[in-house]
Fold:
Amino acid sequence: MKIPFVDLYAQYLTIKEEMDEAIERTIRNTSFIGGPDVPAFEKEFAAYIGQSYAVACANGTDSLEILLQAFGVGTGDEVIVPAHSWISTAECVSMMGATPVFVDTHPDTYTMDPTKIEEKITDKTKVIIPVHLFGLPADMDPIMALAEKYNLKVIEDSAQSHGATYNGRKIGTIGHAASFSFYPGKNLGAYGDAGGIVTADEALATKFRMIARHGQLKKHDHKFPGRNSRLDGLQAAILRVKLPYLPKWTALRQQHAAAYTERLKDVPGIKIPHVPEGSTHVHHLYVVQVSGRDEIQANLKEKGIATSIHYPTPLPLLEAYDEMGYTAGDIPSCAAYTPKLLSLPIYPEMTVDMIDYVCEHLIQNVNVSV
Ligand SMILES: *Cc1c(COP(=O)(O)O)cnc(C)c1O
Structure:
């Protein structure tokens, strides 16, 4: 059996007719930049999240950067981010000339440990960026309480968690704004780069839209120097075809995750994902912890099973952040579990046979290494 890590072509085949029609229509109308699908997607995505405003842009990294700019973050400011994430979460801070301050993450949830945030807050702190990593919401209540106490803004990095919920609320409706990525492999993915934000704050949404469109709302009326970060018409049309399927695809991810968990939960030497009470996990990734991870990954590859590592190095220990002088001792939890992380294949179009095959070989390997 050959099991890819994701299979976007298999997904395309399930919606081929609609998708081909949407792409053809966009080309026929030459709505390459702008056009009717961009505002329509923004409206539909806002409705899906249950938030007042959505504004699209070119990718999820831009959406984080533009939000920070809209909040006025710049040189000398500090932004609190988790040690464990994709680099965009910290990079956006650096690109604004501000300093990312890394907080350790929890070994069960992989999200920012709220008990370790307050000690990092200084009079330079402006924003906290919790990440809903792998599809699981960060622990938002204590984070929002700290933000209120210290008058900070909260950006939910929701790139991996479209549709997840925390204590009955959809992520994207809890912080002051939320950033999304529609990178092809994300739970809602375009056929290229795409991103956007949601917020309840109309002024913030407008500011964001202006920054992303050269400082203008009306053509040739540039209020300030901005940048070019637009969602392509084609990507908007593609995302509009896919959005109605997202609830069904999410349910399939959850079903596959439950199948993995059922097969792996009692196996010594495998730590399965933990879902705290009150949260729903949308399983962008299914990540386990195992000892001897590299050897296990190589053996699975020989059996035709593609796995991945999210992420091999905690952000503050990357070469990119060498100069800041962080050591593993500053983020002990994240540094300790990172060498054990292994992401198993998960995507809506998987079958139970494929999950059986992955589990069978994973369990064999773990037994050998124990
Ligand atoms: C994918 C991702 C981003 C960035 O999204 P792009 O669209 O690839 O720029 C940001 N944060 C997290 C946690 C991500 O997974």
